[in-house]
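Incident review: delayed structure delivery

Summary: a single-chain prediction request sat in the queue longer than the usual turnaround. Root cause was a stuck worker, restarted by the on-call engineer. No data loss occurred. The affected request and its eventual output are reproduced below so the record is complete for anyone auditing the incident later.

Affected input:
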Amino acid sequence: MIILEEEKSTKRQILLILKKKGKMTISDLARELEITPMGVRQHLSLLERDGLVATRIMRKPMGRPVYIYSLTEEADNLFPKKYEDLLESIMESVVLLDGPEKLDQILKTRAFKIADLYRGRFDSLDLSEKVEELERVLTEMGYLVEVKRINNHSFALDNYNCTLNSIARKYPQICRWELEIFRSLLGVRIDRISDLASGGLNCSFLIQGIDKD
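Output delivered after worker restart:
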């Protein structure tokens, strides 16, 4: 966790970029970081030594092979994950004892409680401010979020670290009620474009400044 806590560490920035982009070359990373390829190579060497970055060779019909870098599972575990094994075991027990409808009811109640917990931070804000506040809330919760303004009424929200990713693959209703939290806090239409649980690089949402109904 030390690397991720060092805000200005180049190694931290490399891990964050690879988390967002998936796979990159040294040249790609050098452009993103605005440092020399040699500097990137030195940092990658240390990250490989620590088991946080993996390398594979991509051979081309002509020219030298290209080295592609990506995060290892150990590196991915540096990003916040909260009690996944315990939670999954509890959810399995609920389904076993009371059926999937009971689990859905529990997730619905959880979603309402989370929305109520944060709702006061969104009062009296316009849509742009609400989106910024949602980004802050999700970051506090362990998400790795980026927001981009599309126009005055629409925004793209991308999350690169689902804190419940492995469980959501088994219980996709988690994603559905997560979306309802976002809709409740922003009060506008939000559509999910992609998600990590289905194998996407991120969970992507389109926020549209019109009535959600």
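Verification: Residues 104 and 173 are 7 Å apart (CA to CA).
Action items: add queue-age alerting; document worker restart procedure.
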